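Fill in residues.
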């Protein structure tokens, strides 16, 4: 009996998605709850499981099609048997050549690969069964696949070339090529939201710089003890999130938002942190960050980073947020003007740390300095409030004791 496969509920306010990839082909055996398709929503990739065990039937939509929640996208023949391979012709077979590796992705349980990994496997034509995974529980990551794809293959035994075979023609020097790639749904949504933010908010950016000496010394002094006790590395983001939460309490408008002709103030700090994922930038939210310790913040961010690479972040984890921190410094950025994430009213941009000459107590000394950038909606936040926020943040980072005693 054919059982319909429908688009599952994708989350609050999300009514449609794009079919990103079929994970099973018609005629292939499927298990109950085994993913058979991958959907791309505005925020994350979602796998569609088979409702029953059986055989993959008709695929009713194509890759790239937009589908609504509840729409039927495929059928599964419940309890059926996978199609057997066609028998060989009756003619006497020639000596069999060496067996070729199975097509990428077909010899491995589809449930073992995340959408981003599976896409990389298909794009680079590698056999996932030959790759050792470095992710959690030995799972393959996209980096594992890319590394395998760039690893030189073992040279086969040379075969004598036909005498008349022409030499291969090299590509023309200076040849120009173009490639068109469909924008992912996530990238389309990011583009729309960023442009909407520019069109709606009166955006302005204020800069400051901060001496990172104290935080760097604390990391060197306590990193081993911290990791031993909490099971996570002591990074910079834990300090900045805590310092930002303190500054947000002092300047509540930076943590607020405009709703029509009203201002909504929050007595909590849900901090959105920008995380790089294979399909683009995602912004999961640290809930009640003001109530967490530095260790709790670092654990949460570490978990977000791992699951962003695996494509397993949930949509609910990226909803909401009252303030955003984006760290372009990990990519080498010296200075930028970040764009706010509506309906939030401000975003903090962090940048790379570099040694620069500064004047301290009348003496020119070299210190590890970082530029800070606060972009904000000038309709709600005045320049004085923006500068005061950055100064409070700067003071807490340059004297981390303030974080401990909430000063």
């Amino acid at each position: 009996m054919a059982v319909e496969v429908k688009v599952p509920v994708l989350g609050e306010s999300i009514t449609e998605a794009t079919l990103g990839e079929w994970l099973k082909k018609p005629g292939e055996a499927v298990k109950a709850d085994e993913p058979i398709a991958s959907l791309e929503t505005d925020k994350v990739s979602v796998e569609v499981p088979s409702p029953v065990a059986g055989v993959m039937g008709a695929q009713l939509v194509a890759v790239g099609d937009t589908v609504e929640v509840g729409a039927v996208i495929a059928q599964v023949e419940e309890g059926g048997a996978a199609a057997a391979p066609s028998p060989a012709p009756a003619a006497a077979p020639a000596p069999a050549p060496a067996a070729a590796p199975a097509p990428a992705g077909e010899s491995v349980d589809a449930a073992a690969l995340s959408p981003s990994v599976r896409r990389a496997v298909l794009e680079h034509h590698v056999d996932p069964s030959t790759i050792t995974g470095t992710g959690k529980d030995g799972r393959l990551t996209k980096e594992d696949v890319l590394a395998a794809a760039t690893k030189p293959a073992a040279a086969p035994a040379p075969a004598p070339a036909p005498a008349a075979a022409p030499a291969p023609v090299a590509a023309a020097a200076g040849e120009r090529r173009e490639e068109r790639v469909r924008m992912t749904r996530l990238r389309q949504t990011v583009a729309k939201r960023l442009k909407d933010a520019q069109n709606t908010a009166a955006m302005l950016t204020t800069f400051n710089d901060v001496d990172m000496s104290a935080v760097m010394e604390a990391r060197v002094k306590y990193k081993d003890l911290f990791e031993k006790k909490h099971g996570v590395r002591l990074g910079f983001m834990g300090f900045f999130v805590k310092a930002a939460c303190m500054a947000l309490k002092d300047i509540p408008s930076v943590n607020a938002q405009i709703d029509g002709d009203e201002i909504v103030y929050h007595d909590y700090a849900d901090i959105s942190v920008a995380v790089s994922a294979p399909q683009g930038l995602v912004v999961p939210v640290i809930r009640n960050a003001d109530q967490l310790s530095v260790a709790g913040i670092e654990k949460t961010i570490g978990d977000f980073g791992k699951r962003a690479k695996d494509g397993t972040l949930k949509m609910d984890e990226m909803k909401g947020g009252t303030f955003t921190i984006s760290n372009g410094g990990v990519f080498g950025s010296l200075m930028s003007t970040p764009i706010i994430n509506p309906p939030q009213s401000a975003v903090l941009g962090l940048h790379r740390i570099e040694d620069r000459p500064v004047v301290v107590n009348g003496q020119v000394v070299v210190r590890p300095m970082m530029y800070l950038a606060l972009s904000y909606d000038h309709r709600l936040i005045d320049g004085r409030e923006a500068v005061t926020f950055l100064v409070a943040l700067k003071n807490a980072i340059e004297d981390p004791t303030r974080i401990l005693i909430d000063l």
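Residues 185 and 382 are 35 Å apart (CA to CA).
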